[in-house]
Amino acid sequence: MADFSTTYMGVSLKNPLIVAASSISNYVDKVKRAEEIGAGALVIRSLFEEQIQHDDMTMQEFMERAANISPEIQSGFYPPVESGGPREHLMWVEKTRRAVNIPIFASLNAVSPGAWTSYAKQLEETGVAGLEINYYVVAADPDVPGSELEKKLFDIVESVASEVSIPVSVKLSPYYTSTPNVVKEIEQRGAKAVVLFNRFLQPDIDVDEEALVNNMSYSTPAEMKVPLRWVALLYGRTRMDLALNTGVHSGKDVAKALLAGASAVQVASTLLENGLPYISTMLMQLQSWMDEKGYDKLGDFRGKVSQKNVPDAFGFERAQYMKLLMSQQ
Ligand SMILES: Cc1cc2nc3c(=O)[nH]c(=O)nc-3n(C[C@H](O)[C@H](O)[C@H](O)COP(=O)(O)O)c2cc1C
Predict the structure, then answer these.
(1) Which of 302, 316, 298, 306 is nearest to 232 (CA)?
(2) Higher pLDDT, 72 or 148
């Protein structure tokens, strides 16, 4: 049996397969099952500040509407009703964390600077092994330069990393002009790992209805090529651990991620499509590949096909692109 152990953001994992933030964490039973079947760790679905604000608003609307029917509500006859705020999420994170032995990571997506640090601290208090920053803005305003948005991210990483004592990772968007520079900056501000990359659902247009459609869709293995290239380019150029995310659908995909230099992979779509037992299938596939190659542990081959270690270092850059285009008839 090969040794699958790895370290991710300073936390020891029995294997590199992390269940990504997703609906799998909605039920403690599913998290327990993921552990039984062999997951190395799990990220709990993000705490979204906007969701809390929305819940607060809904409560406010409810109070206003109710006051029209029953003025006692506003007159203080009934005890004040408060929105659950982040409390419900925090209780659920703690409950999940207590139910299993594998490392559980929390994820946070806030908007206002104060909320980032305050929620980060509260998530730390649930006893999680680490905190993933899920930062994403759609840069739709022509008056806001990219540098301003990046500075916001750097400030958030710095303030969160200095506020908590658990390790902090950043789940990045693939849409930066210079991913290596963003990675360097977040490392300098205290992040211990980077997740490459988050996957965003893109709206579509229904031509019959002439309307916007937002459908949930799962990733495909072809989508793994973007994060694979960036993991390979970054391996050995940062002290942070790299987690490859998006498009990992098989044990061979896990092997690819490790060959590029990842310390771990995060997986959601294929588990939602194939069910949690697929975790053990993926681990068995990784095992057979390692047996075939004669590898005993992940360190035997991690980063072997990174840019740093391949003879054709430009293969990960632009030269390959030109060569391929020119070779087409
Ligand atoms: C149902 C569902 C819910 C998700 N919820 C979150 C979330 O709360 N926070 C987050 O950072 N990513 C979330 N994601 C994104 C996944 O964590 C992951 O980044 C993405 O699905 C790409 O990985 P995959 O190709 O293995 O699916 C969600 C994905 C799915 C399918």
Answers:
(1) 306
(2) 148
User: Which tops the pLDDT comparison, 131 or 140?
Assistant: 131
Give burial (CB, 10 Å; 0-12/13-18/19+) of 252: middle
C-alpha distances (whole Å) from 258 to each of 23, 268, 290 are 26, 18, 11
User: Atom 28, ligand 1: which residue's CA is nearest?
Assistant: 22
What's the 155 CA to ligand 1 centre distance in angstroms? 24
76: left (phi over 0), alpha (psi -120 to 50) or beta: left
Rounded to the nearest angstrom, the distance between the alpha carbon of 277 and the centre of ligand 1 is 18
Q: How far is the CA of 20 from the centre of ligand 1 (A)?
A: 6
Q: CB within 6 Å of ligand 1 — which residues? A: 20-23, 45-46, 107, 134, 171, 198-199, 219, 245-248, 267-269, 272
**Ligand 1 test: best mutation among 194, 196, 199, 273, most atoms within 8 Å of CB?**
199
pLDDT, average across residues 181-193? 98
| 13 Cα: distance to centroid of ligand 1 (angstroms) | 20
* 37 pLDDT above the threshold of 60: yes
Tens digits of residue pLDDT in 235-279: 999 999 999 999 999 999 999 999 999 999 999 999 999 999 999
DSSP symbol at 201: P
- Ligand 1 atom, smallest distance to 249 CA: 26
Give tens-digit pLDDT for 65-122.
545 544 433 433 333 344 556 899 999 999 999 999 999 999 999 888 888 999 999 9
Domains and CATH numbers, the chain: 6-54+95-327 (3.20.20.70)
Answer yes or no: are the C-beta atoms of 24 and 270 closer than 8 Å. Answer: no
